[in-house]
Amino acid sequence: MSNTRYSELGGFLRSRRERIRPEEVGIAPGPRRRVPGLRRDEVAVLAGASVEYYTELERGAGSQPSDQMLAALARALRLSRDERDHLYRLANRPIPHRSGTASHVHPAMLDLLTRIDGTPAMVCTDLHTVLVQNSLAIAMLGDLSAHHGSAASFIYRWFTDPAARQTYPQEDLAPQSRSFVADLRAAVGRRSPGDAEATELVDELLRRSPEFQALWADQDVEVRRDERKRIVHPTVGLLDLNCLSLFSEDGRQRLLWFTPRAGTDTAEKLALLTVVGTQAMQTGPVR
Question: What region holds the HTH cro/C1-type domain (predicted)?
Answer without folding.
Answer: 37-84
